[in-house]
Amino acid sequence: MILSALLTSVGINVALCLLFLTLFSILKKRQSYAHLYLPRLVSEGKSQLGDGYNFERILPSVNWVKRAWQPSEEELLANSGLDAVVFMRIITFGLKVFRFAAIIGICVLLPFNYMGNQLNIDFTDLPNKSLESFSISNVDDGSNRLWVHFCAVYVFTAVVCYLLYIEYDYISSKRIAYFYSSKPQPHQFTVLVRSIPNSGRSFSESVESFFTEYYPSTYLSHSVVRRTSKLKGLINNADKLYSRLVHLKSENDTQQRFGRAGFMGLYGKRVDLVDRCEKKLEEMEDNVRTERSTLAGKEVPAAFVSFKTRFNAAIATHIRQGVKPTEWTTEPAPDPQDVYWPFFSASFLKRWMCNLAVIVACVFITILFLIPVLVVQGLTNLEQLESWFPFLKGILSLKIVSQVITGYLPSLILEMFISLVLPVMVVLSSIQGYISLSQIEKSACIKVLWFTVWNVFFANVLSGSALYRVNIILEPKRIPEILGVAVPGQASFFIAYVVTSGWTKTVSSELFQLKPLIWSSLKRTLGGKSYEEFEVPSIPYHSEIPRILFFSLLGVTYFILSPLILPFLLGYYCLGYIIYRNQLLDVYVPKFETGGKFWPVVHDSTIFSLILMHIIAIGIFGLKKVPLASSLTIPLPILTLVFNSYCRRRFLPMFKSYPAECLIKKDRYDQSDPTITSFYDKLVTAYQDPAMNSVRYSENSERINSPLLHSAEI
Amino acid sequence: MILSALLTSVGINVALCLLFLTLFSILKKRQSYAHLYLPRLVSEGKSQLGDGYNFERILPSVNWVKRAWQPSEEELLANSGLDAVVFMRIITFGLKVFRFAAIIGICVLLPFNYMGNQLNIDFTDLPNKSLESFSISNVDDGSNRLWVHFCAVYVFTAVVCYLLYIEYDYISSKRIAYFYSSKPQPHQFTVLVRSIPNSGRSFSESVESFFTEYYPSTYLSHSVVRRTSKLKGLINNADKLYSRLVHLKSENDTQQRFGRAGFMGLYGKRVDLVDRCEKKLEEMEDNVRTERSTLAGKEVPAAFVSFKTRFNAAIATHIRQGVKPTEWTTEPAPDPQDVYWPFFSASFLKRWMCNLAVIVACVFITILFLIPVLVVQGLTNLEQLESWFPFLKGILSLKIVSQVITGYLPSLILEMFISLVLPVMVVLSSIQGYISLSQIEKSACIKVLWFTVWNVFFANVLSGSALYRVNIILEPKRIPEILGVAVPGQASFFIAYVVTSGWTKTVSSELFQLKPLIWSSLKRTLGGKSYEEFEVPSIPYHSEIPRILFFSLLGVTYFILSPLILPFLLGYYCLGYIIYRNQLLDVYVPKFETGGKFWPVVHDSTIFSLILMHIIAIGIFGLKKVPLASSLTIPLPILTLVFNSYCRRRFLPMFKSYPAECLIKKDRYDQSDPTITSFYDKLVTAYQDPAMNSVRYSENSERINSPLLHSAEI
């Protein structure tokens, strides 16, 4: 790719970004878009926007930037929880790393690269210059200038490791502080017991007798999990019907209250739809009632067991309970809102098969994804595209077309395909048998991360067939060399990718909510079922964290190869900082709270990036005929791994569980709290399946005269 | 190797075995050898042998076999502990497996192998037949007879897995039963706390305040570990002097009581040695006393903390204590007799360096060991030996010489070199930082096992340079093929190895105690320091378990390749059964009790053997041109691994720690035990460093008037 193609891509993206930002700042001020841009405030009743047209309202402004900038970390913590703080720290960590990297890269490495003569590019025609002239490829073979790069690798690694340590330390201390400051929460007092042995009695009796025998003074209560998938289906249908009924009743137009009884309401005699709905709802209530009464017999060998203190819950989690290790297995319970109920109905065998299926599916998706990757590769190499489709020659010879095709299109296509993969990964994680939404999210996050790294980074870098790629793994000795050849060549593609996927994607889809905007506009025009409930979204960690981490991987690996990528990355992180703060404050409501458990993923991924950089550096120093530098780089990945193993020992346990010291202190503090008895009362019913008490009805302010729904709110 | 060479080897070994057995049965009856053959009974005061010469005494007999055969497993358990029972179960497990394998192998596989024509060996001259005619190599390529071998692989794997499951189940239930029946033991109530943070106070105060704060009702006592290596050295010297003094005093010959004061007692004026010793001892006592008084300042940040119940000790082990994961780390304490004290003096960095050094040393030893392996390989291939040393041609042409050289010598040499490696492995394990003798023994056991597997099995099987061997790891696809070619060729060597190392070695060195016998005879003739203490040995698990497991690996891998090995193995296991029972009853005293923790090593090693067999089978079916059988074998290792992962989940946790159920039950039982208060009193001082109370003196019946030694016995 030549410089002008890159500039085209940057130009298109900057224009798009500015357009979206302008539109956003206008639309944000209008009440009719509040459900898109301020859903959180709307749901909390804080949105104060009118819908009148005054002049100020239609002018773009940067007030939202100021608003997003202002809150301190403490305010963010109080507002959105520790996970949001950790999420923002991922971005500030990236900012810190790449601020340093950009200074070194642009001020030191770039001039050295540009001064090289290896590629024999003449200095006069800057726009048509290949981007390679700014990369390490341009440095002469065997030149002493490569020692500058060598030093940069060492210094950069040291700085990143230092920052990683500081950050891990800070977040783990935050985690402890958050725990100390938190109110008593049901999940802190509860363990999930699985594989309750079948002793002839009901599971509920087994649990009761087991825990009263062995934990007589501290056992509080339990709730056995029941197979409620059928009940859930029934309630879901009743829910929908109820919403429709409410909608019908609120309609002023009596015309709409009547419909035809036949197929799709198209023929048959005219009936009062409200009457029909009410009758149906009554039927459904009966069904729900009978289903509920049979539930006692549908116990699953799993139960949530609550204790009087956190410490005792921790004891029950950490120590094996039963003699048989496969029975009475315990694990920390997730928060009641965080529990993923469908899982419990699955048997052990089913879960095992699902796990296997998920692995196969992941492999299959990865292989399938090579097709778009090949297309993208074809687009970046115009010659190849011409040889595939000779009839395109005419169009491709137009300068602007070729620049758009090589600079903008590839990243856009790749980005689109990755968006398709995201929901698939969530579904895969959810059928893997996790018991909480947060675990599913974390698992999907890791899946997407490695999928992105493998399919976007490696598949793009290593040209050739898929088989060739697999063979590399079997030849560990050649990996540095192969990467050293392949990685620098893709620098320009990844710069374009940062601009397209980082800048425009973040602005358009994250801030501007392009897809929901189009969707809601379509619905409004077509007059869809507007009585459907308006739901406040929660931040999709599984798509955002991998993206941020992937950019950090790009930045780290290309730091010595092609420092030109660094300013663009820095731009991305600055944009991201403002946009995500705005989103956390105005749009997203936390669905769960893991207490910063996403950070270890970030740490591991950064260590991986560093080691990948070292391997590439070893390869490239070898290729550039400075074997001494190549050999002297070898200790660096080893030192990084030693550092990582120390961090794992020093910090990771704090993200797994809380220590006895904290638990006992917090328990003692609770003893003096007068509200603890009322908390215990709540705790007893906290882990009832939501299907047992239909929460959704109680949230509505309008009520329907239904004895079922009222009785269910207990 | 031809059949007659094998028979020569078997002949030599059988003759040696009979000789040793005869001598053993004679010498065992004599009082003067009781310290070799009945040390346990001697130490327990049960040895009832006179030293008179009556006729019966000099006749060989098989009474000892009857004596060793009789005791039931319960008696063995009561007599030698669970570890001894598990040790014997390793042998009976081998017996069961190879009884089945021998029936299938000899009755089904061997005839099929012999009937093949692949090797074109004529049927007339049986003694000069190569052993290969009994192996799978003789089956015709592509023959349908190979499906018999294929079925045998599946059936054998199923039977071994079934036996493994039964055995794991049995031993884990034994382990729980042993726990229930055991008396209260200090280590059950105690945890080892390490990395006590330095808070300005002494470590002892820190521990006291930490545990009284967080475990006020259950914390009992603690003893901080102190740096006692210097004190230990002083006491050791005092010990030696004391022994000498006792010896001098008991000497009747007054001549010996006097010696000269000069160098080595060769010149100078005559002095009373007893007086001199007593003076020296007094000096040493002073030194010990001053050293002990300074000990308070030499605290190590580690302490043994005892609790009132087992359950609370388990809580302290399983739950992280301090906020910082690197501080207040806890682990189960070993038994006081099992503690390996020297380790505690080492700093963290020193231990880390030691660990690194151990890895390097292991690699170095492995490489160094290739030299004897190459020598051994040269001996089995006479042609190669002749080409190396042409002058040997004359001698080698003698039939008997060549048969001894190819049949007997190689295994003997290999066996000798392995004996040299054994103590090295123990030393390496002991500097790795384990805190108990049992852990050192287990670690050494695993080291020796893998060393044997790699150096005796793989190094012998894969001819060629060491580099070639490393390259195989990098080409996983070719492993089955390479093993399929190489392994069958070494069948005859391993049969000879079983006979030499299994039969003769076990009989001579284990039962006959050849080395100690020669040593003690030498000492007796030369008149050595006979006042040195007589120590009852404990069973060297690290040398015996790897040997037994290695033979089981040979049996499993050669089961389909060369079933001729199986009768010899069966013979080994039968011999081993009687011999080890005899040794456990009469010779060895258990030094520690792990509660059967060696079994998981046995399980893992057997699974490894099975998978190795599968890989070889895949290779050999491929080579024999039955690709379908080769492909159909592939699921077998996968199924075996699934079985293993189930076993790890089902049984392994029981070998790591005891469950809450057992601990609480046992604790409750203790509450009603009247002796528990006196046990608590003992527990408080149980974990004092032996250097603080010199135990060895108190064991002697004779006393010397020394205030120090008396005061130290508190």
From TrEMBL, chains A, B:
Transmembrane segments annotated in the record for this chain: 6-27, 97-116, 146-165, 352-376, 388-409, 416-437, 449-470, 482-503, 548-580, 601-622, 628-647
GO cellular component: membrane
Compartments, record wording: Membrane
CSC1/OSCA1-like 7TM region domain location: 356-621
Pfam families reported in the protein's UniProt record: PHM7_cyt, RSN1_7TM, RSN1_TM
Alphabetic keyword roster: Calcium, Ion channel, Ion transport, Membrane, Transmembrane, Transmembrane helix, Transport
KW Transmembrane (keyword) present: yes
Domain CSC1/OSCA1-like cytosolic, chain residue ranges per copy: 188-342
Membrane topology value: Multi-pass membrane protein
Ranges of residues in domain CSC1/OSCA1-like N-terminal transmembrane: 5-167
Main location: membrane
Keyword Transmembrane carried by entry: yes
GO biological process, one term: monoatomic ion transmembrane transport
PANTHER family: CSC1-LIKE PROTEIN HYP1, PROBABLE MEMBRANE PROTEIN DUF221-RELATED
Family assignment from sequence similarity: Belongs to the CSC1 (TC 1.A.17) family.
UniProt-recorded name of the protein: CSC1-like protein HYP1
Organism: Forsythia ovata
